[in-house]
UniProtKB/TrEMBL annotation:
Statement: the UniProt record of this protein carries the keyword Nucleus: no
Keywords: Endoplasmic reticulum, Heme, Iron, Membrane, Metal-binding, Microsome, Monooxygenase, Oxidoreductase, Signal
Span of the signal peptide: 1-25
EC number, UniProt record: 1.14.14.-
Name of the protein this chain belongs to: Cytochrome P450
Cofactor: heme
Amino acid sequence: MDLFIVLVICLSCLIPLSLWNRNRAKEKLPPGPTPLPIIGNILQINVNNVSKSISKLAETYGPVFTVYFGTERAVVIYGYEAVKEALIDQSEVFSGRAPFPVLDRVIQGLGIVFSNGERWKQVRRFSLMVLRNLGMGKKTIEDRIQEEALCLVEALKKTNATPFDPTFLLGCAPCNVICSIIFQNRFEYDDKKLSLLINYFHENLLISSNAWIQLCNAFPLLLHFPGSHNRLLKNIAYQHKFIVEKVKEHQDSLDFNNPQDFIDYFLIKIEKEKHNKQSEFTMENLIATVWDVMSAGTETTSTTLRYGFLLLLKHPEVTAKVQEEIDRVIGRHRSPCMQDRSHMPYTDAVIHEIQRFIDLVPNNLHHTVTQDTKFRGYLIPKGTTIVTSLTSVLHDDKEFPNPDQFDPGHFLDESGNFKKSDYFLAFSAGKRACAGEGLARMELFLLLTNILQHFTLKSLVDPKDIDTAPIVNGLAAPPPVYEVCFIPV
């Protein structure tokens, strides 16, 4: 009897395995490690650092290979040439968004980030048009950021040069900028709602990047068990409730002839299409879209700033050069403006190097192909998950010598002028590239220069002992917690 059971178990493993391999050969998929039934290649992937595992697999299988996260098939695209070919040269075909099982129940394919097809095209096009109408990339937004930068400087002065964790304050300014676009109002820094929103955005990024969430996405059955995914869903539920309250306020005061902010524009669009049963402009989609814009517009920028100041603490010689350039170009008696950036190549290089070095979203948000696709001699079936390794581009050792070292020289030529790089894909590329790239670039420059214009940074430990490794490395790679003193100059 024992022998019979062993035979049954062996057959139950071998049959699915042979079917899997037969399908792979038939579909001419890229090569990859042999998957095990049910669990796929999960034993070959470190869920604490998926990016590192992908880099190791690329050494064996090259720039295009297939892996299985559980039963979910994914084609990994690694290295600048392959990533460019997919996201830019074949941008339409590679523009689908892969499922994110942990969030699918609450997002339901709505909004901009996790939607697909005609819904994604319509909502994204409309949102970009509205954001431009509201000043995105224009002087009006620059003025808002400058005003918020001064508020942030005042808040930092109130710390009285004592050690503190900058996470909350560095989140206030980006959150207020995006709230002014969506709601037409900002929050005082001691507002409890602002504190909750920022804490939830920060916690969401940490949770969605931990090993448990990577496992839940590979094995959705785990979502029925206790785990940090429940905390993530609870946080999102609170944020959705907050957005619903704001929408109700806007409904009561809406002037159809004079929209003031993003919600106003969306509500007017809903009214115009209320008789269209196929309309993508619904109340549910408004809530999801606002959540997308707020999430993307708050946490990524604030995390980049927080990581940036940690790197500046680690490299005081870099900080000194930035402050010297600020003194020379801007001085101490006026606020920085975007026109200054073209005269500040070193500061511009430092900001780019921060984004390159931290590699905030190592494997991008996963894509799918929208049709059966020939790619480098392989056939990728429609709906296949696509993992584009941004790490492989941002840390390419031919484009960026010693890529694991923080060096602003990566973006400077021999004469000290700023040097652009096609490999700078911190905002991804193609049709799914970050819609708020222009706003983020503006915020990073204005907020960082304003702070360094008014403060010197003091570390609590010797710079040589500062650990800059990310605290987790999954969906994102946020920095470790640290304290800093902002000393007024």
